[in-house]
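For the sake of clarity, the format in which proteins appear in this thesis is described at this point. The record quoted next illustrates the convention:

___
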Amino acid sequence: LYTTAGEPNIIVTDDIMDFYNTAYHELFSVGVGWSTALQTFSMPQLQSVDDFFLILSNSMLTTISFDSLTSVGDNMRFDDNAVLAKLTFNSLTTIGGYLAINNNPALTTASFPSLTTVNGVFDVRTQGSIVWYADQHFPALMHVDSFSDDCDPNLRLLLLARRGFTVGMPSDIF
């Protein structure tokens, strides 16, 4: 834990096996990267992250659970986690930047049941044994700014077919 301009950040790179923290409801950023021992990462009381949420290149991380997290102010990324099997974000509604879920070959379960808006690129790729279904993994998603060229094509089609689903930046920004 460290602070940036007085705001707390969680950055985990040390070789701890389990990280479970109930002390924080809001953080500036969350980053977990290049750990060779971390297996579970959970912050059940965390409600918002002002900036980025990055989980990158962890060789032993299997489970990520943030049941109370409702918003991430910027980008949310899960890349190159060799044994990551489960992502659980039951309360997450809004991501202020992109969502990237890439190269997690062991991923079998992903839960984003409340996510309605991704104000950036939606980049969820085919990986591991998971078969992406809009109604199962992203049942509430109604807006993304764009899709990456590498986004899972079946997931993209299922989302685009959803009644009321929108793609693009709001017109009042221009």
